[in-house]
Amino acid sequence: MSSNVRDNADRRRFELEQNGHIAFANYERRGSDLVIRHVEAAVPLRGTGAAGELMRGVAEIARSEGRTITPLCGYAWAWIRRHKEYADLLN
């Protein structure tokens, strides 16, 4: 799966850019765990599916790195619960 999500390690967040706007997920790496602290999409991206695309990319990155995900953000938690194909990543 190809993803446009990139890891902005300097800002400790994953980012997805669409039409000049950013959706992002703040994270912290703790051992083999990826803690998602906050997910946010720029106002023009809200309701477009950008945050969901971002979370799919985050989940794929976590899987490729052999990590689990601890979602502290309500959106991230709800997204993973709705997408059963990523349930194995939930910590």
From TrEMBL:
<protein>
    <submittedName>
        <fullName>N-acetyltransferase</fullName>
    </submittedName>
</protein>
<dbReference type="InterPro" id="IPR045057">
    <property type="entry name" value="Gcn5-rel_NAT"/>
</dbReference>
<dbReference type="InterPro" id="IPR016181">
    <property type="entry name" value="Acyl_CoA_acyltransferase"/>
</dbReference>
<feature type="domain" description="N-acetyltransferase">
    <location>
        <begin position="6"/>
        <end position="91"/>
    </location>
</feature>
<dbReference type="InterPro" id="IPR031165">
    <property type="entry name" value="GNAT_YJDJ"/>
</dbReference>
<dbReference type="Pfam" id="PF14542">
    <property type="entry name" value="Acetyltransf_CG"/>
</dbReference>
